[in-house]
Every structure is written in structure tokens, then in C-alpha cells.
UniProtKB/TrEMBL annotation:
InterPro entries the record matches: PurS, PurS-like_sf
Protein location: Cytoplasm
Keyword Electron transport found: no
Task performed by this protein: Part of the phosphoribosylformylglycinamidine synthase complex involved in the purines biosynthetic pathway. Catalyzes the ATP-dependent conversion of formylglycinamide ribonucleotide (FGAR) and glutamine to yield formylglycinamidine ribonucleotide (FGAM) and glutamate. The FGAM synthase complex is composed of three subunits. PurQ produces an ammonia molecule by converting glutamine to glutamate. PurL transfers the ammonia molecule to FGAR to form FGAM in an ATP-dependent manner.
Top-level division of the source organism's lineage: Bacteria
EC number(s) from the headed UniProt entry: 6.3.5.3
A Pfam family recorded for this sequence: PurS
Keywords, ordered alphabetically: ATP-binding, Cytoplasm, Ligase, Nucleotide-binding, Purine biosynthesis
Transmembrane segments: none
Protein name in UniProt: Phosphoribosylformylglycinamidine synthase subunit PurS
Reactions catalysed according to its record: N(2)-formyl-N(1)-(5-phospho-beta-D-ribosyl)glycinamide + L-glutamine + ATP + H2O = 2-formamido-N(1)-(5-O-phospho-beta-D-ribosyl)acetamidine + L-glutamate + ADP + phosphate + H(+)
Quaternary structure and partners: Part of the FGAM synthase complex composed of 1 PurL, 1 PurQ and 2 PurS subunits.
Length: 83
């Protein structure tokens, strides 16, 4: 069954307290190579049948209107993932 993956991230100007907490914890756990973290959301939409351009367009529209808050988030990726 094919899936469409949608990734949503906070807009660059929006504070990301979860990302700040993660970046603060990384050095305490021995991970010292990372200077910033931004936490986003990932959605996986399963599709019955073939993923056509129309289905992909519907996924993009859903991502922009339902899966993300366009005031504070950007849809950064909508792609088909083969199983």
C-alpha cells in the first residue's frame, strides 16, 4: 500500500521550545556535534490503489489546510514513499 509522507516544520521566525530543550539535552548525553534542533511533525497518509497526480494534489491541499497551521508552520515536504 503506497504512502504519502508530509513533513511540517515551524516557520523560522517561530520559537521552538521543544527544539531548544532537545539541543540542551544532547551534550549531556554525549552528542556534542549539534548546535541547533527544530522539531516538526510527520504525517503518513496511506493510499488505496495508485498515487496519481490528483491524489498527490489532494495530499498537498490537506497538508496546507488541515495538517499544518499556516500561521506558524510550513509544509516542507510532500512525497510518495514506496513500501
Amino acid at each position: 500500500m503506497p504512502r504519502i509522507v508530509v513533513d511540517v516544520m515551524p516557520k523560522p521566525e517561530i520559537l521552538d521550545p521543544q527544539g531548544k530543550a532537545i539541543v540542551g539535552a544532547l551534550p549531556r548525553l554525549g552528542f556534542t556535534a549539534f548546535s541547533q534542533v527544530r522539531q516538526g511533525k510527520r504525517f503518513e497518509l496511506s493510499v488505496e490503489g495508485e498515487v496519481t497526480e490528483e491524489v498527490l494534489a489532494q495530499a498537498r491541499t490537506a497538508a496546507e489546510t488541515l495538517l499544518s497551521n499556516p500561521v506558524i508552520e510550513d509544509v516542507v515536504n510532500v512525497q510518495v514513499v514506496a513500501d
